[in-house]
Write a structure and sequence with these properties.
This protein is mainly alpha-helical and 450 residues long. Helices cover 61% and strands 4% of the residues. The structure holds zinc ion.
Amino acid sequence: MDEFNLEKYRNYKQSLEKSINIVNNSSDVDKRLRGARNGVKTLEKMKPYIKKGEITLDQDVDEAIHNFKNVNDEIITEYLDENYSDIVEQDLNEKTDEDFFQDLKNLLTDTCYYRLLSFDRSKIQAFDEKIETVFKAISLPSLSKPAFSLLREFKFQGNPDDYTNSERWQDVLPDPEYTVKFFSEGDLIRPLTQIETIDLNLTKVEIQDVLRTHNKPVSGLKDELIKRALNIDENIFNDKLKEESIYKCTEKGLKLVKIFENYQQKLQKKVKEEILSQLENRQFRSCLELRKKFEDEKVFPSPPGMGTWSTFISSTLEQLQLIFSKRPTILKEISDDNLEKLRLGAGFLAIWGESKPDKDLISRELECKFDFDVACRMLLFHASHIQDLTRYEESNVVRKVEIIASNDSCDNCKKIDGKKFEIDKVPELPYPNCTCELGCRCTIAAVNVN
Ligand SMILES: [Zn+2]
């Protein structure tokens, strides 16, 4: 073994030992899982060297990987069993109070989250089946997410016809018509009352007009006006109402919708935490894999932005490399500690496509002239700017670009607004001289040579 490989070997060995130690001794389920998955990652990195005979392992590497994956999935099933076998085995007719709904929420979140983290999903599926019984017992057709999503469509109001005849829903639910019927018979949705229907179809002014023609007072809340008019004649609005039946969730239905929404929020939070820890370790590809897995769990998954997953992943990978390696001049005075926080924040923006990193995810204390969100955006803009320029350069078609400032840009940005530059002479963006409180928002656009 030469010196280079020896050093590598020591690092790998150390990392493996750390993983085994965490898996065996930590009491925190998430830490143990991270240990197991890091074990898999380390072994996969070692594998090519082992195959070439450059370093050795005291057991077969594929077997070792398999073992770590097994341990990972065992930790998950153990955790679920320990925490939830109570729920799935108790007398469900007795349990429809708040506590039960809370337990159910946690159960949903945890199963779905750990499903994302398992290597062999079939192990978790066994647990899914147990949960299925719970849902049957509380008269929900199945735990299926499409069913929940459809129920949520009736949170405010919805026309069942829009869903029963929709190809989109037929693709994800075996029988949307049956599901809607089930909702209605199971007291999860109900038709709008007469007053609600009128409220939905007519404006306050239109109702006042009707009252005026009958010489009735027109002051009061919309509800009161509707009742006043109905007192004149039960059918007074009939010719003004559309002929459609609109439904909305009952209180019981809303409760389930809330469970579903909380579960999605909680799941999202957990995935974001996992992504953050991968970002800290610069495991950019893992971050994007988790992002995709999270999206795939949705009923109607779609990649962030306009393109496909593969374009999103390759472009975001590039962006992350830039965010974590470049420091724009506009942030030159910031300390290394703060820069790391901003990089995590900006990385998050790139991966998640939101305009602000979550408040409770990354510490936002910053000694900087910008606030945290603005500074993160400056890092992200800088990365995109470099990406754009590189693309133009490679295209060999674009030779000049024009700077475009925004309407409320500072005087310094206004000075370069509309100016054209050769690709290799474009000033750095965000513009280092920018004094905008919101940060520099200058962008570039290709100039047509003709
Ligand atoms: Zn500016």
